[in-house]
């Protein structure tokens, strides 16, 4: 019998602060899979729009520019990278300005079409499979994924986690901004944040990150065992 492990595609979706990035990176590293942070791609294209003076409040202007930036994602879970036109933007895409504008840019259908194509080609060429995290991976980007996980957590827990990353952050203001962004992401017309019908929902409110990672690793191993 060969000890080659079959390729597996895992989709992890959910609102902000539920633990998607931390969980996906750890699961991918543990199982030898690639890792793709799709939020970073939407942030990168938003950063480019701001840097190039495109009015992000004007969907037609954003749509016109959608094809211009070249976005490249590195998929090593222990060292994920993101560049726009060859420039490392891993720091600049996390600013407050990008965070406050990313929902408007990512609601534009031409932006979603471009980024979705990119995501599908990255997933199709991952040598041993991939963990892809975002908002619409299970519903739209990879509807045939082998395993779909939808992470949730209370707004209070999510705000406390996010605020904990920034020194002196106000938890109430963080909660308000996060709930506002989730509402925008969930109500847009094109591929909104949503749980796929066949996704497994995991409420992480009272779980440690380690427990969530172990839970998802178990799901992947069960899936692999069932298809062997
Ligand atoms: N289950 C958990 N318990 C406590 N903190 C967590 C948990 N999951 C993630 N975190 C922390 O919360 C923050 C946000 O997690 P992240 O993975 O970036 O979420 P998302 O990608 O869903 O926005 C990080 O600082 C992370 O370490
Ligand atoms: N698959 C995806 C991933 C992210 N987005 C959009 C909507 C999100 O508010 C932004 C930023 O996503 P990101 O995962 O970086 O957000 P947080 O880590 O939760 O702050 O991108 C999307 O529309 N579709």
Automatic annotation (TrEMBL):
Query: What are the EC numbers?
Result: 2.7.4.25
Instruction: Please give the Pfam families that the UniProt record associates with this protein.
Output: Cytidylate_kin (PF02224)
Q: Where in the cell does this protein reside?
A: Cytoplasm
Which coarse location class describes where this protein primarily resides?
cytoplasm
- Chemical reaction(s) catalysed: dCMP + ATP = dCDP + ADP; CMP + ATP = CDP + ADP
Residues forming the Cytidylate kinase domain are 10-221
Record's superkingdom? Bacteria
Alphabetically ordered keywords of this record: ATP-binding, Cytoplasm, Kinase, Nucleotide-binding, Transferase
Query: Which positions are annotated as binding ATP?
Result: 14-22
Molecular function GO labels: kinase activity
- Does the UniProt entry include the keyword Cytoplasm? yes
Q: Which InterPro entries match?
A: Cytidylate_kin, Cytidylate_kinase_dom, P-loop_NTPase
Which family does the similarity line name?
A: Belongs to the cytidylate kinase family. Type 1 subfamily.
What name goes with this protein? Cytidylate kinase
* Native species: Streptomyces coeruleoprunus
């Amino acid at each position: 019998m060969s000890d080659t492990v079959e390729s597996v595609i895992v989709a992890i979706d959910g609102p902000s602060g539920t633990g998607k990035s931390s969980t996906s990176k750890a699961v991918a590293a543990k199982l030898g899979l690639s890792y793709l942070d799709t939020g970073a791609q939407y942030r990168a294209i938003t950063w480019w729009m701001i840097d190039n003076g495109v009015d992000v409040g004007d969907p037609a202007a954003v749509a016109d520019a959608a094809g211009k930036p070249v976005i490249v994602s590195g998929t090593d879970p222990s060292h994920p990278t993101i560049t726009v036109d060859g420039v490392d933007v891993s720091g600049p895409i996390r600013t407050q300005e990008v965070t406050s504008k990313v929902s408007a840019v990512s609601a534009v259908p031409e932006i979603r079409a471009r980024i979705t194509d990119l995501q599908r080609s990255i997933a199709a060429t991952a040598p041993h499979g991939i963990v892809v995290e975002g908002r619409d991976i299970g519903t739209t980007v990879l509807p045939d994924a082998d395993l779909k996980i939808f992470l949730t957590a209370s707004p209070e827990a999510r705000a406390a986690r996010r605020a904990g990353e920034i020194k002196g952050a106000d938890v109430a203001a963080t909660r308000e901004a996060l709930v506002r962004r989730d509402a925008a992401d969930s109500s847009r017309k094109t591929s909104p944040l949503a749980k796929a019908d066949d996704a497994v929902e995991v409420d992480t409110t009272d779980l440690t990150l380690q427990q969530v990672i172990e839970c998802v690793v178990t799901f992947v191993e069960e899936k692999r065992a069932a298809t062997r």
